[in-house]
Amino acid sequence: MKQAWIIVTSMLAILAAALMFGQQQAQTASLEIEIGPKVDLAWDVDAKDTSAAGWNLYRGSSPGAEDAAPLNAAPITDCSIYTPLFNADGTPNFDPNDPTAGQLCKYKFTDLHVVAGQTYYYVSRAVFADGTLGAASNEISYFVDPGECGFVRGTWFSFCTPPAN
Q1: pLDDT value for 134
Q2: Per-residue pLDDT, 47
Q3: What is d(CA 146, CA 162) in angstroms, rounded to the nearest whole number?
Q4: DSSP 3-state assignment of 100?
Q5: Is residue 164 situated within a structural domain?
């Protein structure tokens, strides 16, 4: 009986190791790590509006007091073009004569330099080809919840790491 138990135990250990190896291989292909608190920002611009060469984002710690220097090192130029199904007023977004009507360009930026428990205020400004800046957008604010932690997507555990100073 003892010999059978050892064989079953060994088989379970081999099976567990094989499953773990398989999971690690699958996770390695799409591993995403997010450490510490962050703020994901996104905004839409009419895809036909090509007046701006890019966008700058500005952050402040109180309303209307955004820093003079942008968060981004260079103007943000990458966007994903999409067509919403409905317009802002709820009407269907469809024009059979213009398949690009209503297309929007979604820009994204992640602010990784935030501290949990703080509120941050953000505005965006268009950057034109000649380097001049457009007017500031409407201001938005976001409170970074102290409970927001990093995680490794696709696994069963999570962890919290304070941001580096």
Answers
A1: 93
A2: 84
A3: 10
A4: coil
A5: no
Q: Which residues pair with 159 in a beta bridge?
A: 150
Q: Is residue 4 part of a domain?
A: no
> What's residue 132's pLDDT?
94
In a domain, 157, yes or no: no
Amino acid found at 4:
A
- Number of compact structural domains in the chain: 1
The answer to whether residue 126 sits within a structural domain is yes
* CA 49 to mean position of chain CA atoms: 24
pTM: 0.63
**Predicted pLDDT of residue 148:** 55
Counting as low any pLDDT under 70, the low residues of the chain are 1-36, 147-165
Q: What CATH number is attached to the domain comprising 80?
A: 2.60.40
Neighbouring C-alpha atoms within 13 Å toward the C-beta of 104 = 14
Range of the domain at 64: 38-151
d(CA 67, CA 120): 11
Question: Residue 125: beta bridge partners?
Answer: 56
